[in-house]
Each structure stands twice: as C-alpha cells, then as structure tokens.
Amino acid sequence: MSAKFDEPLAAGDLSAHIRAFLVEQPLAPDCKLVLAYSGGVDSEVLAFGLSQFARQHPEFHYQLVYVHHGLSDNADSWAQHCLERGQHYGLPVTVERVTVNRGPRLSLEAEARKVRYQAIERHLSANDVLLTAHHEDDQLETILLALKRGHGPKGLAAMGQVQALAQGRQLRPLLDISREQIEAYAKQQGLVHIEDESNQDDKYDRNFLRLEIIPRLKARWPSIATTASRSAALCAEQQATLDVQVSERLPLWLTQAPYHTQSVFKLDGFAEQSADWQALLLRGFIESQGFALPSKVQLNQIITQVLTAKDDAKVHIRVGECEIRRFANQVYLFKYHARPRHVKPASWTFPSQLLNPLVQGDVTQLDVTSAGVTCGETIRLSASKQGPRARFPRPDEVVSVRYQLAGQCRCHPHSRGKGRELKKLWQEFGVPPWVREKVGFMFYNEQLVMAIGLWIEKSFIVELNGLGLQVSQTSV
C-alpha cells in the first residue's frame, strides 16, 4: 500500500497516490474500472486521479456512474455536471436513475445506499473493480456508527481498502487520506465539484457526526481518524481469523433440507456448544444465506427459542427481511414475503387434450399455469423413460391437481412397502408444515396418482424402460 501523507500536499501528490494504489492491484487484462461518481469533492478528486491513470493505462476499460436518486431538486443539474466533467476527463459517464423506497420505518440513508449500489453493480463483471471515494474521515464515521449500534469486531473493522463483491472487487484508494487533504488538493488543482445541500442536514446520522462530533474530536485529538483506522485494521485482522475458524466448523452443522434445495442448520448437539460458539455458528449460518445479521439481543432470543422449544412447537421468528423457522430439529431461513394464507383448498382440472403432445411424443415438456390458483401456480409436465414416473392417463380419465388433502388420506408411495396416512408421510418425507398447503396432488378421476415432487402412487408407477409422466411444481 502507498504510504500515508504526513507532509503538506504538493501538486500531483494525490494523483500519484491513486495511481500507485491502482498499480499495486492485480487488475485483469480485460478489467473495467467503474467509479461511483457523485460529483462531490472526494469523488471529483478520485475521477481526476483515475483520468491520470487511464492515460498511462489505455489497456483497461473505464466507466463513471452517477446515480440519480431524485431526492433533490438539484439532481438533474448534478447529473449534467458529472456528464460534463467526465467529458473533460476523457472518461465515459452513465447516469442511472433509481427510485428510493420511503416509509415510516425505513432509513432514507440506508435505502438510498442500497439502490445506489444495486445500480452501480449492474455495470460490474467478475474481473471488474468498483472504485469509491471513501476517505479516512468516512472511516471514522463508520467506526463511530458501529459503536453506536453495538457492533462487534466485524462492524468495528469498518471499511477495507480492498473488499470482495458479488461481482468483482471494491477498491478505496483514498481510505488513508483525510478530508482536509482531499479538499486542499481539489483547490490546488482547480477541480470543480458540487455541494449536496443534504450534507448540512444533521438529522442524518453521518451528517451529525461530520458536522457536530468529529470536528470536536479532531480539535482535541488531531490524529483520531488515523488512530481509529488502526483500531479498525486490528479488528479486521481478528475478524479474519475468526471467519476462518467459523468457515471450517460451519459446514459440519449444515445439511440440505429433504424437500428444499436450501441449506438448513442442524440442531443436534448445538445445545452442548459454548454460548460464544452458538452465537458465532448461527451468525455464520445467517450470513451465509445472504441475510443481515441480527443484533446480539435478537440473536440470543433466536438461540433460546430454537433450543428450548418443544419438538412440536411452531417456532417462527422474523428479523428484518429474514424469517426463521424450526422443523425436525433443523433451522430454516427464508426471505420474508407478505403472503395471503390459503384458507380454502384449491383444485384445478387439466383440459382433456392438454397431455396429447406429451403422449404422442411431439414435445418432452409442458409448463401449465392455472389463473386464480394461489398455491402451486406452475406445474411442469415431462415425458421420461428414467426415474420414478406415472403412467399417462387414459382418454376417459380426467386429470386434476388438488391441494390440502386431509391428513387421514391413505397413500402408498412407490418407495414404500405399504401405505400410510398422509400426516405420517409428511414427517417421513421431511415436508415442513408451512409448505404442505402448497404441495399439489395429481388425480386421475378420483384416484390419487402422485404427490408432486415427493412420490408416485405404487399402483401408477411405470416399470422398466416404459415412457411415463414426471411432474414438478416450480413454485414450492
């Protein structure tokens, strides 16, 4: 990494700093450098430095992205500013217009950040890098916010100069540079930048820290941003070691749900782990499934509920966008969706001629959708000579799909020696209670043929190499 500036800035120093940082990175030959460009002083300095780098390295691709949030009356003029400055720098600029969700329980800052990154990351491929103009004072703000929220080492590690993204990497060349140095350099170079009026609104947490708190901290301890960054780096080192330990242990606690393709967390033996490891493993599981981490209090409540609930208890917890359920001594995670509960059983009948193309061999697969049916909307029908499959219906047999059969309904799966009641088979096949109402059952006239995705009734199974019908339900 390039060294921290301790001397007054000389002309060209900050551009040299940016170029040196980028030269040190292992950039792929076909790499695109995408700059999150707001037109503010810090991103203006980074755009200027990137233009200097681009002149020396024409082998790479470059893209500046301005995100138009529509939150300010000045947003159109800011977008025009970025387009003009990009032309001045010789770098292409794209304006992305987004809509920010608003609501009484939503943080405008957080929602704007989320859609901003979503818009920018659309421009990234696997070998590309995203450049952001976060600087040392931004790092101090992030650390203070992490302290305010009660975060542990992961949160206190704040921002890294190099971080992985879903596609590519994020680079922060100015993370070891102070706001004062950036502003002085912009003035030196005569860089034109915009001033976002919302930066003076201290109702936003970052602005409050920037306007009210950090100046007082710096007046007392001038080097606090630098020393706080060192603390963040130490937390990052400790977190990296912890992450390795968790990544080695976590797979032992995961398995694939019998009826879902998702990973679930096994609770066998979990109660015997120390409280610290219980928290670390469950945090690791939640994070591995792409959900935001709960607070310490929330996590402790989750652990208590999943460990102390009786086997037949319906554990159902919602934390933000994450739904947590327990079934068969396993923990399931889902993304929350407001769903209407299916009160009445639904059923639908196939037109008599629907299966003709499959039976006659004209096609090998059909997708069938029934309007108005809310629990199993799409049925996929396939003709196959392999795997469990049912015989095709005869011309005089009416084909229907029904839902929410009574638990006393007797079934005889092809893989079982004898029949059992449906309520017992739900347990045997590991189908969670909240999924059962969405599982479709296919009938020929009044005879049960299959539980879609689970079994074929033994009396309808096709033996040897005969052509038969396989059915899957894409919405479950």
UniProtKB/TrEMBL annotation:
<dbReference type="GO" id="GO:0005737">
    <property type="term" value="C:cytoplasm"/>
</dbReference>
<dbReference type="Pfam" id="PF11734">
    <property type="entry name" value="TilS_C"/>
</dbReference>
<dbReference type="InterPro" id="IPR011063">
    <property type="entry name" value="TilS/TtcA_N"/>
</dbReference>
<feature type="binding site">
    <location>
        <begin position="38"/>
        <end position="43"/>
    </location>
    <ligand>
        <name>ATP</name>
    </ligand>
</feature>
<feature type="domain" description="Lysidine-tRNA(Ile) synthetase C-terminal">
    <location>
        <begin position="399"/>
        <end position="471"/>
    </location>
</feature>
<dbReference type="GO" id="GO:0006400">
    <property type="term" value="P:tRNA modification"/>
</dbReference>
<keyword id="KW-0436">Ligase</keyword>
<keyword id="KW-0963">Cytoplasm</keyword>
<dbReference type="InterPro" id="IPR012796">
    <property type="entry name" value="Lysidine-tRNA-synth_C"/>
</dbReference>
<dbReference type="InterPro" id="IPR012094">
    <property type="entry name" value="tRNA_Ile_lys_synt"/>
</dbReference>
<keyword id="KW-0547">Nucleotide-binding</keyword>
<dbReference type="GO" id="GO:0032267">
    <property type="term" value="F:tRNA(Ile)-lysidine synthase activity"/>
</dbReference>
<dbReference type="InterPro" id="IPR015262">
    <property type="entry name" value="tRNA_Ile_lys_synt_subst-bd"/>
</dbReference>
<protein>
    <recommendedName>
        <fullName>tRNA(Ile)-lysidine synthase</fullName>
        <ecNumber>6.3.4.19</ecNumber>
    </recommendedName>
</protein>
<keyword id="KW-0819">tRNA processing</keyword>
<dbReference type="InterPro" id="IPR014729">
    <property type="entry name" value="Rossmann-like_a/b/a_fold"/>
</dbReference>
<keyword id="KW-0067">ATP-binding</keyword>
<dbReference type="InterPro" id="IPR012795">
    <property type="entry name" value="tRNA_Ile_lys_synt_N"/>
</dbReference>
<dbReference type="Pfam" id="PF09179">
    <property type="entry name" value="TilS"/>
</dbReference>
<comment type="function">
    <text>Ligates lysine onto the cytidine present at position 34 of the AUA codon-specific tRNA(Ile) that contains the anticodon CAU, in an ATP-dependent manner. Cytidine is converted to lysidine, thus changing the amino acid specificity of the tRNA from methionine to isoleucine.</text>
</comment>
<dbReference type="GO" id="GO:0005524">
    <property type="term" value="F:ATP binding"/>
</dbReference>
<comment type="similarity">
    <text>Belongs to the tRNA(Ile)-lysidine synthase family.</text>
</comment>
<dbReference type="Pfam" id="PF01171">
    <property type="entry name" value="ATP_bind_3"/>
</dbReference>
